[in-house]
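Entry 14. Ran structure prediction on the chain below.
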Amino acid sequence: MRVLIVGSGGREHALAWAIAASPLVDRLCCAPGNAGIAEDADCVAIGADDRAGIVAFCRREHIDFVVVGPEAPLAAGLVDALEAEGVAAFGPTAAAAALESSKSFAKELCAGAGIPTAAYRRFRDPLAAKAYIARRGAPIVVKADGLAAGKGVTVASDVAAACRAVDAALVEQRFGAAGRDIVVEDFLAGEEASFFALVDGNDALPVASARDFKRLGDGDSGPNTGGMGAVSPAPALTPALEGQVMDRIVMPAVAAMRARGRPFKGVLFAGLMLTEAGPQLLEFNARFGDPECQALMMRLISDPLPAMIAAHDGVLRRVDLRWHAEAAVCVVMAAKGYPETPEPGSEIRGLDQAGADPAVKIFHAATRRDAGRLVAAGGRVLGVTALGADLARARARAYAATDRIDWPQGFCRRDIGA
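Output, structure tokens:
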């Protein structure tokens, strides 16, 4: 098969690394890719948001199967465009991707399907939102309704902070069209976890669990980011709780989407809060998480490509996945200044030494080659990922590798998996 991966981040490098090992693959391409992905695939200079360019490339190069990594091309209808041209693609249609691209749509679906989630209201008027916040009190959560690259959520500890978040979205328009509407929802207390399932429109196959670390600094301090690290499996998500998530959240969502004429195919990512009353949904995503995908692919024994094809073809019941029993830890290294104004262009050295341990893999996110040098090209730059017999040993390996990387302009959290 000729396979194309769409995207350029650490998630896409992890997918490329896993798919490149498949005996089904004759040629693997990535649009646009990065310096690390170039070691596993042919990178082509087509942006992930260039729908016409991707479709034309698939026709010209006779691509058999496309794996779409990021959420924005899914929401923009890339899968729809590919399927219209007869190119099979892994991922939901734009209508199904609304589970992620519209927080209010997902909340309405949960209400209709009886999926446990926090009470909420949707607003476009900042004064009405602030009045609601004043009545509900704090802590409370304010979310941009649309896609905001993981940065549109404010968990406000007091009413004043929540009102500032309202102004940021509705008055200052900090998130553009994604913040034209906001969702204000009750705060849920507990431990967070991420649960992933492959979905074929009717059935769902559990993938694995993970936990990501969104805040910038140690001890969950600082602003929300796209993710500063992840562990898999999620320590608090027991097999019994995973069964509850499948029965009460994933399968009801699959059935509700099918009933609405928006059958979901691809990866359904349920962001969870494990509360005293059981797992409750924080949000749905319509793709693998980043950096959770890096940890998941390290633990995956099976070839992922047949499972992705089965999800597309509606035959997931014929598929199973095998996983390493070991834990995985991914530590994200970011450029100084992230998430506001990351410093670009700094040179990164020492990756060969850092990745010499066979239980370690360094996934690239925002990297490029410049006259033979490896340089940072964005905010989140590397995902140093390691396996270990338990979380503590995986964590020790990941940080040992991180410390061997020569990159003074980079930084990381020191408490991932602690």
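The chain has a mean pLDDT of 96. Will compare against last week's run tomorrow.
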